[in-house]
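REQUEST
  id: r-88c1
  op: predict_structure
  target: D-glycero-beta-D-manno-heptose-7-phosphate kinase
  payload:
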Amino acid sequence: MTTHLHNTARNMAGKKILVIGDIIVDHFIWGSVNRISPEAPVPVVNVNREELLLGGGANVLHNIYALGGEALLCGIVGADEMSGRLRDLLAGLGTSDRGLITADRPTTVKTRVVAQGQQMVRFDREQTGSPEPAVVEALIRCVEEQVVSADAVVISDYYKGVISQSLMERLLVAVHRVEQERGVQIPVVVDPKPQAPERFAGATLITPNQLEAERLTGMTITNEEELVQAAQILRERLLCEAVLITRGEAGMALLEADAEIVTIPTMAREVFDVTGAGDTVVAALALALASGASLVDAAALANVAAGIVVGKVGTATVGINELQAELENEGEKK
Ligand SMILES: Nc1ncnc2c1ncn2[C@@H]1O[C@H](COP(=O)(O)OP(=O)(O)OP(=O)(O)O)[C@@H](O)[C@H]1O
Ligand SMILES: [Mg+2]
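RESPONSE
  id: r-88c1
  status: 200
  body:
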């Protein structure tokens, strides 16, 4: 098992993933507090350091590069300073910004102020909902063009307006055309938000977390039987090849057609920071599937990657060497 996971991980090198989704810039402000403001009963933060990180769909892209793949990001940004900073971050990874479409709205930025090891406040600058029709059309055109050279597609949905029914429909038409032309499969992996689930019909694999799976089906999941039932309902309703429900500390559960559910316990030994684990999961899944791995192997590999990322503080990615080393470790224990 581990040997061929090793080979899968090796084969991920250079695979091209088209990431379509809501782009977020994560802005951190670190400081310290020594007094309460004389103006209002709030702490005064002395700022020491600021950092901008790729978030949302851009964090999936970041994870793909860390795992040795290549990716192009399609989504929308504003005509503002933050979109320039975002382009710089993307250039730093060596990826192109040609999939960024400028809309009449701000680039989504989430700013966290952290002091004394604690988040003091978060403020968001964003405008959600459908962008103007010309922007939607430009985005879809871009997706149709870029899918031609992709080995797999990731949909990174935060329900902020990029992933619409029409985009998904035209993406899938383009995917099927390219599959015929190139004689290959192009898996489409969806990390969904639970709103408007009909958008995701026809994807290869959908990866909700347990709460999202509950909202998508209207069920509550309290035992294995309900877990299987929710996965079946989702798979049949959305006509997906498979459903992977991620379950935080309980690991994952994969349901394919005509198969028993496969449950995978978490590999995490220590847990420091679970944010972004879902992005690592879809990045690894897409790269593994693009390398020809089975759904079960892709899920197993994604689970190892997620187990590593939750053990890190402040970094939301896993390097290919770390992944290989962890697979080696597991192999030795067997
Ligand atoms: N507390 C935890 N302990 C152990 N493993 C975890 C924990 N949280 C997440 N993981 C690992 O990460 C994977 C994905 O996590 P989770 O199910 O929380 O996804 P998510 O809710 O979509 O995450 P995100 O907040 O990034 O959207 C899990 O399947 C598991 O392998
Ligand atoms: Mg998630």
